[in-house]
Design brief:
Strand order of the largest sheet: 1-5-4
Radius of gyration: 15 Å
Order of helices and strands: HEHHEEHEE
Structural class: alpha+beta
Helix content: 25-40%
Largest sheet: 3 strands, mixed
Strand content: 15-25%
Length: 110
């Protein structure tokens, strides 16, 4: 099962995503939660607390590459997912693993 949550800022996306991830992990086996928010806080909702949040290493840029397959260009990971989980995955309560996409380094021109 793949679930994606999107919507207006402040609408509860992170809370719903974290709660759903933990419930699925408790009842259905391992869950991979990916935080792609520009203000990443999913770690806290997944039960890591602020200390755990500070220990999360975001995925580095440049992990995607374009490949031509049967005449079509596809976007693929440049490394196997298992390698990324080993290097950057953070174990959370309830059988959830967190991957955090790169966070902004600071404010800039908009």
């Amino acid at each position: 099962m793949k679930v994606s949550v999107a919507g207006k800022g402040g609408s509860g996306k992170t809370t719903c995503s974290g709660t759903l991830s933990r419930l699925l992990g408790r009842t259905g086996g391992p869950v991979l939660a990916v935080d792609a928010d520009s203000n990443p806080n999913l770690a806290v909702t997944l039960g890591l607390g602020r200390a755990g949040f500070d220990s999360v290493t975001p995925l580095p840029h440049g992990l995607m590459e374009h490949r031509r397959v049967n005449g079509e260009v596809t976007l693929s990971l440049s490394r196997p997912l298992e390698d990324l989980l080993d290097a950057y995955g953070v174990s959370c309560p309830d059988d959830v693993t967190l991957l955090q996409l790169g966070a902004p380094s600071g404010a800039g021109k908009g």
